[in-house]
Amino acid sequence: MWGISFSLFALMSFGLVGAIVCKNVIRADFPAGFVFGAGSSAYQTEGAANQDGRTPSIWDTFAHARYIKPSADIACDGYHRYKEDIQLMVETGLDAYRFSISWSRLIPNGRGPINPKGLQYYNNFINELVSHGIQPHVTLHHFDLPQVLEDQYGGWVSRKIVKDFMKYADVCFREFGDRVKHWTTINEANVFAMGGYGSGQVPPQRCSHPFGDCSKGNSTTEPYIAAHIMLLAHASVYRLYEKNYKDKQRGFIGLNLLSFSFVPLTDSSDDEIATERANVLFIGWFLNPLVFGDYPVLMKKNAGSRLPAFTVQESESIRSSFDFLGLNYYFEMNVTKIPNVLQLEERDVAADMGIQLENVLNFTSRSEYPIAPWGLTGVLEYIKQHYNNPLIYIHENGQRTQRNSTLEDWPRIEYLQAYIRCVIDNIRNGSNLKGYFAWSFMDSFELFDGYEARFGFYYINFDDPELKRRRKLSAHWYSHFLKRENITLDGIVLSPSRDYI
Ligand code: NOJ
User: Fold this and answer.
1) Can you tell me the distance from the alpha carbon of 136 to that of 181, in angstroms, rounded to the nearest whole number?
2) Can you tell me which atom of ligand 1 is nearest the CA of 444?
3) Most Cβ neighbours (<10 Å): which of 86, 172, 194, 377?
4) Is-catalytic flag, 276?
5) Is the CB of 190 under 6 A from ligand 1?
6) How far is the CA of 135 from the CAs of 181, 279, 392, 402, in angstroms?
7) Ligand 1 centroid from CA 114, angstroms
8) Is 363 exposed, middle or buried (0-12, 13-18, 19+ CB in 10 A)?
9) Average pLDDT, whole number, for the chain?
10) Is 15's pLDDT higher than 50?
11) CA–CA distance from 455 to each of 242, 398, 404, 420 (Å)?
């Protein structure tokens, strides 16, 4: 045990803690039933990629193609160490844990027979969580479609996926729905559409020149097609649950989107209008259909026939097909207008919106994220005002530090502290927020950075085959906040334990 205790308050006076805007807060300030948790996803943590019947997903293919050594074949080895990990969750004091199911572990051919070992694994995992009083919040698709379905019919650009996704969801509801009450169909559907099919920066890495460098795809049409089919698949799964499971299981179904706070680059009215368009694209593309049953007018106008249309029946099925929105938020972005873009013959989604998105998709920069929680407030206000104040879980929010960062992860504590303070302000301002999940529970295999970036409360040395979990200072801090109802976020006294040292 260290002899000295640190308090954030003391560190603030030494100027080590960054700008903080929202007021101080204690756990007991949050409404009853508000859950605090942390998250992960299957491919990023499970490992055992080729074990017990699992087959590759599009993320395996993507990671291997990028030569990110050694990809996530082992990752955190969560598949074998889940009991130890859940024990750490208990020690941290999580109310809930967000994770995803690997479709190709549960149903290795994408459709058809269930893999008994995959089924056993998820049953064990969920039982372990529930027996420790931790709510499982489950995502069905986290960038990891079974590769076999991509190969057979093109995955999310084919309508065939709707039936297969429904069958997969049906298996999950039937097998796990007695214990899982929160289901998210698709993680970051907007990023998956734009990055997977527009710029080619995320699996399945489809795009066309000059929008990216991929071996196949069409950046002018496929993002719209994939998004359309995702919405149809999401709604079909929602309706399936409503019809066959809701009465008995009493769970909730949502969709997850990444959000940015868009800020005009200059104070010109052009950039202000461009900023509004960025919101239409990033949030409205999916939320407009989910809330009002159709795409935003501007998107329909600018994309023309490249944007698929909903039939009356589809529109009815999609409208209101969500119980909550899962929102990921990390940082704000500047937006500027691209002039005369609508005169270009070849346009991708960003060009259709007339906005410069270079900054927005610059995910690969290695720096830490700025602490600007007012950006999150802006997004929450925007959604409240434009989309009838839906119920929201903040599914991801967290700080990236570098691979060589230490266990004393002050930047993470500063970041989380600032954002959690703002969450309560938003609740008081009327946003319908029901939970907050920090990203991520432990260091894992990152989408853009492999093992070069860290987001976790728990440190893992990925070069050491032991993959020992080591508690970071942020875990200690989060745990104090969660377990002691009346300690203010900046009054937490940190006396690191041996684990941390
Ligand atoms: C979004 C993704 O859902 C997750 O997989 C990723 O690790 C985090 N953001 C951080 O980049």
Assistant:
1) 7
2) 7
3) 194
4) no
5) no
6) 8, 32, 16, 30
7) 28
8) middle
9) 91
10) no
11) 35, 7, 12, 16
Q: How far apart are CA 145 and CA 203, in angstroms?
A: 9
Q: What's the pLDDT band for 464 if we cut at 50, 70, 90?
A: very high
- Provide the 3-class DSSP secondary structure of residue 420: helix
Mark whether 396 is an active-site residue: yes
Q: How far is the CA of 409 from the centre of ligand 1 (A)?
A: 19
d(CA 17, CA 485): 23
441 burial class (0-12, 13-18, 19+ CB within 10 angstroms)? buried
Domain regions of the chain by residue span: 6-483
Instruction: From 439, 448, 441, 380, select the one nearest 415 (Cα to Cα).
Output: 439
**Does ligand 1 have an atom closer than 6 angstroms to the CB of 399?**
no
- Which residue, by CA, sits nearest to atom 5 of ligand 1? 447
With a 6 A CB cut-off, is 41 part of the ligand 1 pocket? yes
Ligand 1 centre from 43 Cα, in Å? 11
If you search the block for the tokens 């690969």, which residue do you land on? 364
- Of 356 and 479, the structure prediction assigns the larger pLDDT to 479
Element (H, E) at 33: none
Strands 453-454 and 401-402: antiparallel
Residue 48 carries which side chain, given as an amino acid letter? A
Question: What pLDDT digit, counting tens, does each position of 103-124 carry?
Answer: 999 999 999 999 999 999 999 9
Is 63 within 8 Å of 72 (Cβ atoms)? yes
Please report where in the chains the tokens 């529109």 appear, as a residue.
315
C-beta separation of 59 from 35 below 8 A: no
Regarding the beta carbon of 447 and ligand 1, being less than 6 Å apart is answered yes
- For the segment 194-239, what is each residue's pLDDT rounded down to a tens digit? 999 999 999 999 999 999 999 999 999 999 999 999 999 999 999 9
pLDDT above 70: percentage of residues in the chain: 89
Per-residue pLDDT of 60-81, as tens digits, reads 999 998 765 668 999 999 999 9
Calculate how far, in angstroms, residue 142's C-alpha sits from the geometric centre of ligand 1.
9
CATH topology of domain 6-483: TIM Barrel (3.20.20)
Indicate if ligand 1 lies below 6 Å from the C-beta of 328.
Answer: yes
Cα separation, 77 vs 304, whole angstroms:
47
Catalytic residue among 332, 396, 414, 446: 396
Give the DSSP letter string of 245-292.
Answer: THHHH--EEEEEEEEEEEEESSSSHHHHHHHHHHHIIIIIHHHHHHHH
Taking 50 as the threshold, does the pLDDT of residue 133 lie above it? yes
**Residues β-bridged to residue 39:** 98, 439
Is the minimum distance from the CB of 446 to ligand 1 under 6 angstroms? yes
The finding on whether 490 has its CB within 6 A of some atom of ligand 1 is: no
Q: Rounded to whole angstroms, how far apart are CA atoms 441 and 182?
A: 18
